[in-house]
Automatic annotation (TrEMBL):
Residue ranges of domain DJ-1/PfpI in the record: 3-169
Organism: Vibrio aerogenes CECT 7868
Taxonomic lineage from the root: Bacteria, Pseudomonadati, Pseudomonadota, Gammaproteobacteria, Vibrionales
Primary gene name: yajL
Gene Ontology CC terms, in alphabetical order: cytoplasm
Protein name: Chaperone protein YajL
One Pfam family matching this protein: DJ-1_PfpI
rRNA-binding listed as a keyword: no
Keyword annotations from UniProtKB, A to Z: Repeat
């Protein structure tokens, strides 16, 4: 069940998204690497609302490693840095080529994936303020969108970060495992994964 997860961060990354992603991946039992895409080589910097984020390493230092998923938090400034990071874009291209999962939330689907035309035929969502950057045929008005054919999960913003992260857990480990994480967190009853307690292990097969 152990999966290697890469979460890039940068100055201006959306902290609610970044921390929620990292937290849920750790709760799921995955091996999480938080890597700084900061061009000046800093590991510690301010996120979009002033919260201090500290990465484990620099993105360039783990560029040749393989990860089961690369998950991009949003935030306007952070996504712009991701967009301009040659190292990260090459890693995303390799991830896609190898058929491994890419996930992105908020501004990142539009400013990173769509900007570089990494998934020209995939369905996706993003923060509503960037909706016009996604071709109409590809856009989905959903809080979390999973394109099975392209192994791409996208989501809309800070308020959807928990659902987004749980969808990634479902992708790797199934609904029963996701429920084991959701139940002790006392998640909101109207969220789709709250009903996973009704599923047994057989339902994940």
């Amino acid at each position: 069940m152990n999966k290697k997860i890469l979460v890039p961060v940068a100055p201006g990354s959306e902290e609610m998204e970044a921390v929620t992603i990292i937290d849920i991946m750790i709760r799921a039992g995955y091996d999480v690497t938080v890597a700084s895409a900061d061009f000046s080589g800093r590991l510690t910097f301010k996120a979009s609302r002033g919260v201090t984020l500290t990465a484990d390493c620099l993105l360039v230092d783990i560029a040749d490693e393989e990860f089961d998923a690369i998950i991009l938090p949003g935030g306007l400034e952070g996504s712009e840095i991701f967009k301009d990071s040659t190292v990260l874009i090459e890693m995303l291209k390799q991830q896609q080529y190898d058929g491994r999962l890419v996930a992105a939330i908020c501004a990142a689907p539009a400013l990173v994936l769509q900007h570089h035309q990494l998934y020209p035929k995939a369905i996706m969502t993003c923060h509503p303020s960037f909706k016009d950057t996604i071709p109409h045929a590809q856009w989905r008005e959903k809080r979390v969108t999973y394109d099975k054919n392209h192994k791409l999960i996208t989501s809309q913003g800070p308020g959807t970060a928990l659902e987004f992260a749980m969808e990634i857990v479902i992708y790797f480990s199934g609904k029963a495992h996701a429920w084991k994480i959701a139940e002790p967190m006392v998640t909101a009853p109207n969220l789709n994964y709250h009903q996973m307690g009704k599923w047994d292990e057989a339902s994940d097969q």
